[in-house]
């Protein structure tokens, strides 16, 4: 269920999404409020689950993770035991940045970040040795055109 937010909450969230490292004073100044009410609103939104953990966004290429693969997975297995094993395998692999279960012809899509194609092959070999998969298609991203963590408020 969606949480009710007013315009001030949305302004605060926009500032936090842009740069969560800003001081409360900076955020308060930008949204036209004072520090204490901003802190109280942030605390309430945290308690309500609107705001999750805070992280830093790292540059993958600067860290040598030059290859981004989108991995399309089809499976003939749909039992709970297989799914638990598959999900555990994905969660154990730091290369998997995102994993989604889909409707349609493809069962799952993964976003996998690795240094190069050889590293992707190692990831792929390890995954299929842990879990039986019917079909895997890997698509190499040639260029990242847009990537954002900002939600439309």
TrEMBL record:
It comes from the Bacteria. InterPro entries: ArsR-like_HTH, AsnC-type_HTH_dom, Dimeric_a/b-barrel, Tscrpt_reg_AsnC-like, Tscrpt_reg_AsnC/Lrp_C, Tscrpt_reg_HTH_AsnC-type_CS, WH-like_DNA-bd_sf, WH_DNA-bd_sf. Keywords: DNA-binding, Transcription, Transcription regulation. Residues 5-66 form the HTH asnC-type domain. SMART domains: HTH_ASNC. This is Lrp/AsnC family transcriptional regulator. It comes from Plastorhodobacter daqingensis.
């Amino acid at each position: 269920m969606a949480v009710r937010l007013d315009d001030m909450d949305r302004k605060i969230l926009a500032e936090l999404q842009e740069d969560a490292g800003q001081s409360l004073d900076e955020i308060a100044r930008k949204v036209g409020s004072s520090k204490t009410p901003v802190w109280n609103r942030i605390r309430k939104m945290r308690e309500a689950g609107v705001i999750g953990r805070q992280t830093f966004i790292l540059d993958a290429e600067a860290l040598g993770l030059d290859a981004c693969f989108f991995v399309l997975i089809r499976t003939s297995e749909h039992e709970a035991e297989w799914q638990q094993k598959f999900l555990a395998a994905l969660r154990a692999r730091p290369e998997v940045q995102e994993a989604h279960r889909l409707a349609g012809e493809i069962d799952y899509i993964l976003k996998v970040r690795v240094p190069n194609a050889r590293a992707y092959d190692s990831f792929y070999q390890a995954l299929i040795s842990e879990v039986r998969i019917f079909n895997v298609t890997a698509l190499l991203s040639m260029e990242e055109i847009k990537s954002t963590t900002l939600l439309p408020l």
